[in-house]
Amino acid sequence: MLDDTVLDDTVLDDTGRHGPKVTADDLRAQVAEFLAGHDPKTTDRQDFLNARFDAGLAWVHYPAGLGGQGLPRSLQTVVDRAFNDAQAPTNHPERNGIGLGMAAPTILAHGTAEQQERWLRPLWTGEEIWCQLFSEPGAGSDLAGLSTRAVRDGDDWVVNGQKVWTSSAHMAKRGLLVARTDPDQPKHQGLTYFALDMKQPGVEVRPLRQITGEAEFNEVFMTDARVADADRIGGVGEGWQVSMATLMNERVSIGGNALPREGGMIASAARTWREHPELRTPGLYDRLLRLWAEAEVARIAGARLRQSLAAGQPGPEGSAAKLVFARLNQEISELEVELAGADGLLYDDWTMRRPQGANFFGRNPGFRFLRAKGNSIEGGTSEILRNIIAERVLGLPKEARVDAGPWKDLPR
Amino acid sequence: MTEHATTPGPAASGKDRSPRSADLLYTETETQLRGAVRAVLDDKAPWRDVLARTESAQTYDDKLWRTLAADVGVAGLLIPESLGGAGASYREVGVVAEEIGRAVAPVPFLGSAVLATTALWASGDTTWLPELASGALTAELAIPFAAGTRTRPVPTVRLDAPEAGDGPGDYRLTGVITGLADALPADLLLVPADSVPYGLYAVRVSSPGVGKRPLTSLDMTRQLCEVRLEQAPARRVASGKQAEDSVAAALLAGAGMLACEQFGLAERCLETTVAYVKERRQFARPVGSFQAIKHRLADLWVAVTQCRAAARYAADWLAAGFGPETTLAVALAKAACSDTALKAAQEMIQLHGGIGFTWEHPAHLYLKRAKADSLALGTADAHRASLDVLANLPGPE
Question: Chain B contact for A399, CB < 8 A?
Fold first, then answer.
């Protein structure tokens, strides 16, 4: 009854409407041929992943030569499933969420051919983990007001400043850095975008402990850190536009993933409900039914968004998925703590841990309840997302601004 | 009351599309159909006319319905080409329903082209379908609009004794059915009757012994009526399980298509309100530049976006046939769209301020239709309650 295949995006080629030249069957045949030449049991893991990249079977919607074949994004599921069925080694996408979800599309959209060649392969195979150096203590929602400085020095730039809320920074080889290169320009115009080498003396990473007790994030301090001009992504002063491409991808990657029915936060709430008839009350039941229905509709809406994006790039519409995801995670996890009854008063462990990636649905109800509070803040607060929808989707007028003029003259 | 069995219906015949993946977008054909319907509605059903008609003797617009039914061909969408229809599916019907919701159009599309047509097709009696397809005949399933989809309403009409001169295929019905939508303009009523076995009968409205009484309704763009039958001559369309299944299929399809209509209504309310707050100035700026207004409209846009996906999911599954996933899809869509359409109409009034509370503004037409629709063919609560079985979420003891 709970049919996971119902929203499998791949069957779109049935309709012929998104009619890819290469069909799902063609791709399955390509994977079979690849596996015949590279036995997952005997081939070295890194060799296997490199070969898969070279065969254009890494991310089929990327261009030929960069791990793909220029196909609709929806066909990637077919390839992933075929490799999964063969128990082939994976690139551990959960360890490199920012690299795969945000750095790669940004590099593809704004990087030079040389940068794409140099960075995309080790990024996809997981050899190089990426992080995102955007938010600062003084620049959260107002990202464009950031004050980390990059000053030109020969073929390099010298970077000084502090970033915060940086997931994976302690594991990352490279960081997507947006820094101020011209304080005399208005705030959106004086920014430039770089790929910073994280493994250098001028970069210090410290854990940032959050309300769950663990430290999933970091603070990053840059003191005379150096980045080559060859590692600049986009033009000098174009950092804001490049950042927007990254953030649009981030909002799709938070809350935009395909999940089976009853995947996500509702899974454990529904399971608890079924296993504990003694906890059932009319009030909790009404909330559960509402949240189950809303979660399922959100899942269908996510599938619809992916179908409409199958060939295109994420736009501001992705903000809807993230808004709904954050609200549902919070409401469902709140309900779940209540469903736990007396156990809702307990917590599994307050000691500081360093998880490898974000896990919104892990550990116990108390953890999920606390972690969900971050969902409406990280990757654009729900308030900023509503502004984006209002201004960019609905075309409503912008707020009156008081932050025009050179950045250096703004009150801080 | 009996729990519905799964039922075959239009477009389901011989096709097993499960497991399958729903196409949630609109095809080119569907977009063209939308354009044709919208052009007619923009031209012939501007809101001032719709408003004026709610206070006239003829609350349904017969001329508009003839144009849509016959010229655009919306009456026969579900009917196979061999019987004079378009051989389309609930996907196309859903698009037409969206447009009718956008215009709050006073036409019996839902009653005739969805409920009655589905009931007739599922019953296997094709007698009336060619006339329905051409628009020459308008029909309605005589079940109260407030009926849910989960249990079959107990009929309030009984099979009566035959009269002198009645042949073997002639039946007589007596009883009163109230709260019927789209029955006022109907020429033919499909009447469930409590006999042994349960039966579905066709009654010509022009026959002796058939009376209709219009009811003052919350939503006068879809005015309800009461039908009184006294020894009314009838023909049997289906009996026993076939009749039960036909009614079940009609109510389920009706709820799914009503959800599409609610989505269309919600989208129109949102668009109208967004346009208004860009124009309306207070404190020397457009009111739409205030964050308090922007955030409400952003939330509404998100809700409407969710609702569109749910409505398309239901339309796509209905097009595939009648099974548990279709029932679930309809329940999700009707629950989401009922809540969102009502919210959209309420936001439309609030964000228009005083003008939105006047009779001379269309907002109240949308509010009344949204509220009435939310009570019809299963409330949001009733559809969510069906998740006890559909999603295995049992209720408290």
Answer: yes
